[in-house]
Design brief:
The complex is a heterotrimer of chains A (65), B (131) and C (715). Chain A contains 1 helix and 7 strands. Chain A is mainly β. Chain A has one domain (2-60): Beta-grasp domain (Ubiquitin-like (UB roll)). Chain A has a 5-stranded mixed β-sheet with strand order 2-1-7-4-5, with no helix packed on it. Chain A is globular and about 35 Å long. Chain B is an alpha+beta fold. Chain B has a single domain, classed as 2-Layer Sandwich (Alpha-Beta Plaits), CATH 3.30.70.20. Chain B has a two-stranded antiparallel sheet. A two-stranded antiparallel sheet of chain B has the order 2-3. In chain B, strands 4-5 form a two-stranded antiparallel ribbon. The chains are: A mainly beta (65), B alpha+beta (131), C alpha+beta (715). Chains in contact: A-C, B-C. Chains B and C meet through helix 3 of B and helix 6 of C.
């Protein structure tokens, strides 16, 4: 089990940040990702792995209005 | 189309071109008023100057930038409101401004720096493309 | 031009210093008096400018019992001290206020176009229009000559696109001079409806046509026509980088260039505003279940792909040239569909330039009306603009009316034969044409949601409880276009506002619903304190808020609080100081707003409104009103029943589950109100306290008097 934006999310095997974003349906292009507080560069989404127990924050910097 | 060209292999970095440009247009010796800027990269000299690409023409917020009949990109000082948007938008970083000038300035391939270069490292290229 | 001049007034244009002329212009169209007023240091210190000045003047011009169509009601406008600068994006906004025909309390609306900045450069920080004329007027200000002329209308066209072209042509000396003219007007629908809006023009030298931006919300155009003002025209030649006579041009240039470079380098990777403006978000909203569909019943629809941004980019929207509504704006969001051929109405067959579509337009006139046809949306967009119709109120009100039609609350007989099923764009356009002609069912729709509810109940026998639940208005103003049922913070962001629900004050859906950044009531209250205050500041200074967070610096993600965009906040602090010569910091910025925000709330209290009782949203804003709505999100709602209430959803009927949800959600909203009022320094009834006003330096005698009167009344 991992946390994504404070909510539980099932974890079956190590997956990349990009795979997690796809799984969550987070298609918004303009986001900030932090794993256990650590900022992840966009270039690393395809390689950075999310491990069991990780606390993942996916901030959508959506402007709106 | 007229473009100022710079030959890196000949340039010695004397910067006479900068002085000539600043002096001719603004009667200044300060290189911050020059439309050509020479930078030293490990004793190879790079010239930052307008390539007359025209990216600034369509983005100009007061429709003040145009290409003249010789293909040179120019600023109409009567229309320009000095927003400096073009300075931030220039991919070549060769649109310049100074706080005491009402409008930005750029290379118009005028030949002043070419004449000032003791090494012959600068020249005006004229082509028929894009005119 | 041979219009009869009813009044001429010559003046010496005041010189600007540090962003201010310190003069305001008062015109009474009833007795044709014109007066130059001094702006006091107190006004500058406490009210800053823009909306602050507007509200200050409006307060002193009106009485607690003033109605929108009383002669003492005013239209007040002001550009703010930063307005008209050219070196930073989004610096040409005008703020307009008046007592609203929709809400009966002050409305404020912000708008691009050149009028406000050119008015300021003509010597006036603000303009007050009071009184009522008995004949249609044009008010012309020549800022170079120092001349004001009140002229009698000689049969000018009613609709904006014609009126603007004609007036611009008349007052400009030649083609090059047209950029120096700006017109404020409304359209033919405004006298017949309550949500008539104001168009502010600017001339587009590339398209060789007048463009418009709208002070749309709250019926300001309706007030303009009630005063029989046909148009305001300003002419000023000579816009330059430092007309504001700023304290520190160097800082302004540096920050401006840095920001323009950000836009050049990052917009394509971030929101793509330069390509499609605010409509870039339609696809995202649809995917995240937030695109209001068929009167906010759903948060999206598979058909919405037909109105995605790429469709407009590929087929309608002119690409590759500057589209700003004021000089220097590199965000360039004011897109157009050029050479657009109209298929209905009085201009059928003509090719026009459509200003838009913006997000609110595609979401409101599209998805929320069930219209998934980009062509129809653009045609609706054009007619809303030229007729002077606030398209947000129009769309949200009509969405409600269409749901009433679909649910059998009103019928063909009531609508005068118009089939108002969702998706019927022909009927939508016909309603607009009826508003323009002042006839038929369109005039009823034009009264707005609150009055439609009453009319449908009293005249057509509709169910008042259902209508109260699905009519998306608070305080009489229609909601902006976001389906926000699952975001408690955004429910507050809409309902706990001064002027009524709009997208100007707080936009917290993603922070709350997707990012889960503000889980507790205190967190939400903090956000509903900070963001409305921060965003109010744009309206004090004459700024657009889009450049704040529709693009962010490359390293914004690494900052402490990416949602606030700290570097851009600092840009604004630095620019404010560089213009005015003051030395505020980011906390004082919030305090500046807080003073005016509380002033506005007390203004509403003074008029017998502005309390908790009027801050309640319709239930559609909070949760599922209908079974269909429940079923469309059943999995999520059932999960909540299980987790939050500890009940087995399988053992409950839909009605029981809906009741549990409703009780819970209404209770949550009450708790949110408690937390927000507390955070804002207000009583539990939503009224600012005297102590709080003192703590922010806003304990002016006229405000304290209102609080005292209110207290006595309560006792």
């Amino acid at each position: 089990m991992i946390k994504v934006n404070t909510e539980d999310h099932p974890w079956n095997k190590p997956l990349t940040v990009q795979e997690l974003l796809d799984e969550k349906g987070y298609i918004f292009p303009h986001i900030v990702v932090r794993i256990n507080g650590q900022y992840i560069e966009e270039d690393d989404y395809a390689t950075q792995l999310v491990q069991d127990g990780d606390d993942v924050l996916v901030l959508h910097l959506m402007a709106g209005g | 189309m007229k473009i100022l060209a710079h030959k890196q292999e000949i340039c010695t970095g004397c910067r006479n071109c900068e002085e000539a440009c600043a002096d001719f247009y603004f009667k200044r010796t300060d290189r911050n008023y020059s439309s050509i800027r020479i930078t030293n990269n490990d004793n190879t000299f790079h010239a930052t100057k307008c390539t007359q690409c025209g990216e600034c023409i369509n983005m100009c917020t007061s429709n003040a930038i145009y290409r003249d009949r010789l293909g040179v990109v120019r600023i109409d000082k009567n229309k320009c409101v000095g927003c400096l948007g073009c300075v931030g938008f220039c991919s070549e970083l060769s649109m310049f401004y100074a706080d005491d000038l009402p409008v930005p300035f750029k290379c118009v391939a005028c030949n002043v720096c070419v004449k000032a270069c003791p090494e012959g490292a600068l020249e005006i290229l004229v082509s028929k493309v894009k005119e | 031009m041979a219009r009869k001049i009813l009044k001429s007034y010559e003046y010496k244009p005041a010189k600007l210093n540090r962003g201010y002329t310190r003069k305001s212009l008062y015109i009474n169209v009833g007795d044709l008096s014109v007066q130059a007023k001094d702006i006091s240091q107190m006004m500058i210190d406490k009210f800053v400018g823009g909306k602050g000045f507007d509200l200050y003047y409006l307060w002193h011009a009106t009485l607690p019992e003033t109605k929108w169509d009383d002669p003492e009601n005013e239209i007040v406008m002001s550009a703010g001290p930063l307005g008209g600068m050219t070196q930073y994006s989004g610096t040409g906004k005008t703020l307009v206020c008046g007592i609203s025909p929709m809400t009966g309390i002050p409305i404020d609306s912000n708008v691009g176009g050149y009028y406000g900045p050119l008015l300021k450069f003509s010597g006036w920080d603000a303009l007050e229009l009071q009184g009522k004329s008995d004949k249609d007027l044009v008010i012309f200000i020549d800022g170079n000559k120092g001349l004001i002329q009140i002229e009698e209308d000689d049969g000018l066209p009613e609709d904006t696109h014609l009126l603007n072209e004609k007036l611009t042509e008349e007052y400009a000396e030649d083609e090059d001079d047209k950029v120096n003219i700006s017109v404020v007007c409304t359209g033919s629908a405004a006298p017949h409806i309550r949500f008539g809006m104001l168009n502010f023009s600017f001339y587009d030298p590339r398209r060789k046509t007048c463009r418009v931006k709208q002070a749309a919300r709250g019926g300001l155009g309706t007030i303009l026509r009630d005063k029989k003002i046909k148009a305001l025209v300003v002419k000023f030649k000579g816009v330059k980088p430092n007309l504001n006579d700023v304290a520190d041009i160097s800082t302004i240039n540096k920050i401006g260039v840095k920001y323009a470079k950000e836009m050049h380098d990052l917009d394509q990777k971030q929101n793509g505003i330069r390509k499609i403006g605010t409509a870039n978000t339609v696809a995202i909203m649809n995917k995240y279940d937030l695109l209001p569909t068929r009167n906010f019943q759903a948060g999206g629809d598979p058909e919405a792909v037909k109105i995605y941004p790429q469709v407009f980019i590929d087929n309608f929207i002119t690409q590759g040239i500057h589209d700003g509504c004021w000089y220097g704006c590199t965000m360039s969001c004011a897109k157009t569909a050029d050479h657009f051929k109209l298929l209905t109405g009085p201009y059928k067959g003509q090719c026009v330039t459509v200003d838009g579509p913006e997000y609110e337009c595609v979401a409101g006139l599209g998805a929320n009306l069930g219209v998934f046809d980009p062509r129809a949306i653009l045609e609706e967009n054009f007619y809303c603009d030229t007729y002077g119709v606030d398209l947000i109120s129009f769309a949200t009100c009509l969405a409600f009316v269409m749901e009433c039609f679909e649910r059998g609350q009103i019928n063909l007989e009531n609508t005068g034969g118009l089939d108002l099923h969702f998706g019927n764009s022909e009927s939508v356009l016909e309603i607009l044409h009826q508003m323009s002609r002042g006839e038929g069912f369109g005039v009823i729709v034009g009264q707005g949601t609150r009055r439609c509810k009453q009319i449908f109940v009293e005249k057509f026998g509709a169910d008042p409880k259902l209508l109260q639940d699905i009519g998306m208005e608070v305080k009489g103003l229609e909601y902006a276009e976001y389906c926000h049922k699952e975001s408690l913070a955004q429910q507050g962001g809409f309902a706990l506002t001064n002027k009524g629900p709009q997208h100007d004050e707080a936009w917290l859906i993603f922070m709350d619903q997707v990012n889960k950044q503000i889980p507790s009531f205190e967190d939400k209250a903090d956000a509903l304190y900070y963001y409305p205050m921060f965003r109010t500041w744009f309206g004090l200074c004459g700024l657009c808020k889009l450049p704040w967070n529709d693009i962010v610096p490359a390293d914004n993600g690494k900052t402490d609080d990416p949602a606030k965009v700290p570097e851009h906040v600092q840009n604004y602090v630095d620019i404010f100081n560089a213009v005015t010569g003051k030395s505020i910091d980011k906390d004082e910025l919030i305090r500046q707003s807080e003073r005016v925000y509380n002033f506005q709330r007390v203004f509403s209290v003074r008029m017998g409104h502005g309390t908790r009782a009027e801050d309640y949203p319709p239930y559609r804003s909070l949760g599922p009103v209908s079974k269909e709505e429940y079923l469309s999100r059943q999995e999520m709602y059932d999960k909540q029943i299980r987790e939050v209430h500890g009940k087995d959803p399988e053992s409950l009927s839909i009605e029981e589950k809906m009741l549990i949800q409703r009780k819970h959600r209404e209770n949550q909203f009450e708790k949110l109100m408690d937390a927000v009022y507390k955070r804002r320094g207000w009583t539990n009834e939503g009224v600012p306290t005297a102590e709080h006003l003192a703590s922010i330096g806003m304990d002016l005698p006229e405000l304290l008097e209102v609080l005292e009167t209110h207290e006595n009344k309560e006792k």
